[in-house]
Amino acid sequence: MARETKKHVFFVDDEPGIRKVVARTLGRLGVEVTCFSRAVDCVEQLNVQACDLLITDLKMPGMDGIGLLSEAKRMAPWLSVLLVTGYGDVPVAVKAIQLGAADFIEKPLHKKSFLRKVKFILDQNNPVDPYTGKGLTRMELKVLKLIVAGKSNKEVARLLGRSVRTIEDHRNHIMRKLGVQNAVELVQRAIHMGLIELPPSQ
Hints:
Elements: E1 8-12, H1 16-26, E2 32-36, H2 39-46, E3 53-57, H3 65-75, E4 80-85, H4 90-98, E5 103-106, H5 111-124, H6 138-148, H7 153-160, H8 164-178, H9 183-192
Parallel strand pairs: 1-2, 1-3, 3-4, 4-5
């Protein structure tokens, strides 16, 4: 019998005390929590680790919460992102929503309302396919770029020195991970991820 996979939440905040409290609080939901002190470390992990919800502080040294939101949405357009701020900056909240944030919450975090909000977002993001939302491997990214460039499976296999069957398997995994059903949706996802540059409008 297959075991149920825990939801995985990434939390980013440069304050160790807050990371500890939030990790303990989220543990009440029975989710797995990975904490980061820097946004760049989170971005690196998004490439290799499945994530169901990203929660990030707004004000951080280096890449801030808005920067992380933009980068995360470029890499994984389907990923839900919750921004946390202690500044009550309404214009920033609006910008975050426009960039695709699922929600915006102010510090200090009230445990009950925080958990309610997180649970609601996780319940809304419940893919049927266990592959959906997982990051693409380096090889899958190479295959995706060649596919959206118009190359056939046979051409991709020749260029990458792999068998056609292997490329077909990669293509299947890519489509399942990106949650797409056909080539058109695959190209649209690749555009959102910044893998394809649209020609300038005339």
